[in-house]
Design goal:
Largest sheet: 5 strands, parallel
CATH class of the largest domain: Alpha Beta
Number of domains: 2
CATH architecture of the largest domain: 3-Layer(aba) Sandwich
CATH topology of the largest domain: Rossmann fold
Number of strands: 12
Structural class: alpha/beta
């Protein structure tokens, strides 16, 4: 089932690159390798992989710049990117996500966690030609996008405009981490007078209205928020 999925690994440390390549191949995916930023961009455009594992600290062109370039290119902008970064570099994680990366892994990470995150991304990426479902449901939370209604089990929740937009954003990509700035930009546009602090306030309100399921909205320390993915 996984054999047709192509993954581009961008990592300049040979030992790490070989380890990732081995585990990706072992999991049944096709794997290609790029050792620097220029090679990563060229291979991404040529191979059009289904996913890119992108180390931020690579020579020639940084991983952050590579991410920005690929997300601005019409032919590569829809390719999911998982950034790889050293532990404790929260600023790099935030910058990577805001440059268009879809998820991140901090080094060192286990092969089991790597493959789990790769599989999670593929579960969340719609197949070619697949229509967006008007009804989104995770656990007991259900959103009817057409009617702009949210239900907790069978009870309709009274959400503000911003609460609805934030919850919709998080439910559309469960498990994906969104920075506060991304949430602001995606729900109101870059010119709207809404702050990171107001996003925190909206999240508090959402959690309260979700009751016992409020914990499904997880805080990613120093980064932002995500909606917990179903097991």
């Amino acid at each position: 089932m996984n054999s047709k999925r192509k993954i581009l690994i961008v990592e300049d440390e040979k030992d790490i690159a070989d380890l990732i390549h081995f585990n990706i191949f072992k999991a049944g995916f096709d794997a290609s390798l790029a050792m620097n930023g220029n090679e990563a961009i060229e291979k991404a455009k040529t191979l059009l992989p289904d996913l890119i594992l992108l180390d931020l600290m690579i020579p020639e062109i940084s991983g952050l710049e590579v991410c920005t370039i690929l997300k601005e290119n019409p032919s590569t902008k829809k390719i999911p990117i998982i950034i790889l970064t050293a532990r404790g570099t929260e600023d790099d994680i935030v910058k990577g996500l805001e440059a268009g990366a879809d998820d991140y892994l901090t080094k060192p990470f286990s092969p089991k966690v790597l493959i789990a995150r790769v599989n999670a991304v593929f579960r969340r990426v719609p197949k070619e030609g697949q229509k967006e479902n008007d009804i989104l449901k995770i656990d007991s939370v259900r959103i009817d996008q057409t009617k702009r209604k949210v239900f907790l089990k069978e009870t309709e929740l009274d959400l503000t405009f911003s609460e609805f937009e934030i919850l919709l954003l998080l439910l559309k990509k469960p498990g994906w981490v969104f920075t506060r700035a991304q949430i602001v930009n995606l729900i109101r546009g870059t010119n709207h007078a809404i702050t990171d602090r107001s996003v925190d306030v909206q999240i508090v309100g959402l959690r309260k209205k979700l009751g016992d399921l409020g914990g499904l909205i997880e805080t990613v320390r120093g980064v932002g928020y995500r909606f917990k993915e179903s097991e």
